[in-house]
Design goal:
The protein has 6 helices and 12 strands. The protein is α/β, with parallel strands linked by helices and 209 residues long. Strands 1, 4, 5, 6, 7, 8, 9 and 10 form an 8-stranded mixed sheet that branches. Strands 2-3 form a two-stranded antiparallel ribbon. A two-stranded antiparallel sheet has the order 11-12.
């Protein structure tokens, strides 16, 4: 089964508290979400493989390290996942960006896919799905399924806040996918929101609340 990791770095926890506050405005919310995403991807990429390369500095030749293995693709689940992309790209500017568009039926809480666009070599890439909330797990599982359908073999899921229900759902349906969160919250409420959560991430990111 894929591992579930809560990143307890003090900076991540401090910034998460900022975006939980209901009086945090759109500009600050958007900025801090990006900062958290950057800190999270820094933490979760510690296991990326390295290789030796010979380079020449202004002083002379030397053997140093550079990234080896699969190239990275960050995959935001639209629209809220977009708020995390810039923070990831600041850490990994060479990463490609794919997009998966979904909307949630407010009555059934079931996700529906409406857009999918990835780099053509997705099967050879490490995919990092980003979405602020992991609530029921429906959107995450649908996104993972779509990537696998198109040949992706290496997938990680990165969220800000996770509900136990969502973690369980993803682990049961996609046991090969590791999940990383800034926090595991108390519960999922009947209306599909996470408690204590941070509200509707998409509305707060884009000022549509």
């Amino acid at each position: 089964m894929g591992k579930f990791t809560v990143l307890n770095h003090p900076l991540i926890q401090h910034k998460l508290t900022i975006i939980r506050k209901k009086d945090t405005g759109t500009n600050e919310f958007r900025q801090v979400v990006g900062e958290i995403a950057g800190l999270m991807v820094y933490e979760i990429t510690r296991d990326l493989p390295l290789k030796d390369v010979e380079i020449e500095t202004p002083i002379g030749k030397t053997v140093q390290k550079e990234l080896a293995g699969k190239k990275l693709t960050v995959v935001p689940i639209l629209r809220a996942g977009l708020g995390m992309v810039d923070g990831v790209l600041q850490m990994i500017p060479s990463a490609k960006v794919g997009h998966i568009g979904m909307y949630r039926d407010e009555e059934t809480l079931k996700p529906h896919e409406y857009f999918f666009k990835m780099p053509p070599d997705i099967q050879d890439r490490e995919c990092i799905i980003v979405d602020p909330m992991l609530a029921t797990g429906g959107s995450a599982n649908m996104a993972i399924g779509a990537l696998k359908k198109h040949g992706a073999k290496s997938i990680r899921l990165v969220v800000l806040v996770a509900a136990p229900d969502g973690v369980k759902a993803v682990q049961e349906q996609n046991p090969d996918v590791d999940i990383y969160a800034a926090a595991e919250d108390e519960k999922l409420m009947p209306n599909g929101y996470i408690f204590p959560g941070l509200g509707d991430a998409g509305d707060r990111l884009f000022g549509t609340k």
